[in-house]
Amino acid sequence: MVRRVIGTAAIAVALVWPVSAMAQGVPGGMERGAREGERAGGPVGAIVGGTVGAVVGGVAGVLGVEQRPRFHRYVVEQHRPSYHYREPVRVGAVLPESGVTYYEVPAEYGAPQYRYTVVNDRTVLVDPRTHRIVDVIE
Asked: For this UniProt entry, which residues form the secretion signal (predicted)?
């Protein structure tokens, strides 16, 4: 029984890993990984697929791995002013509502629900409702 569960999990990981790498961010990776894992390996596959998808999605961030350098170049070319922030620039930090200019993310990057800005010379993606940093683009 244990071998069967481990075997099913291994198959689910092998099938889900490439698919979940295309998902954007932790939520997208988790959702897609669970869906593909369940299809491949049933309930155990869904658990393993969701976990693998979340990890891969978290590594990729909100933007896909291939989009990050391109988006960073785009922001640099825009010559946006940098906002001085006294706290560490990190995912989860909340920026003030006023004093920071938030810009729309172009549709080609697939993150229309977020805005970007430059903080302490670092490009960040921000949830416009909460002003929370959701990704730091290096």
From this structure: 1-23
